[in-house]
């Protein structure tokens, strides 16, 4: 089994992580667009070097007023939705992750660069989940990000 398959299987077979992912997704997905924009803003703030990979989006500091950034944020959130919807099937999770990875490979985003999203995810989880936030939830998201990283 490939590394992507192995890591996908670890996520799929960990019921605690899946519960945390689904619970937190229930909070994050209440407002997909705003959560996606928050995630992107946190990425640019926490990893300023990532801005170069998003030059095609134009002025990202314009936030919601930038339609290209909004489109990317919304598309990102639907990709995450697809991951969450695939948590019970290793092959399906592997397939959707590999398709998602192609988009990032085409933009020459490395596994390490992609991994920089974990910090911004943590910040979004903390902001959105309030007193329900915990590091186990961050670890569950990091495990899902690791599946994507393996495909890059």
TrEMBL record:
The keyword Metal-binding applies. Coiled coil: none annotated. Residues 12-152 form the Globin domain. Signal peptide: none annotated. SUPFAM superfamilies: Globin-like. Keywords: Heme, Iron, Metal-binding, Oxygen transport, Transport. Pfam families: Globin. The keyword Transport applies. Belongs to the globin family. This is Globin domain-containing protein.
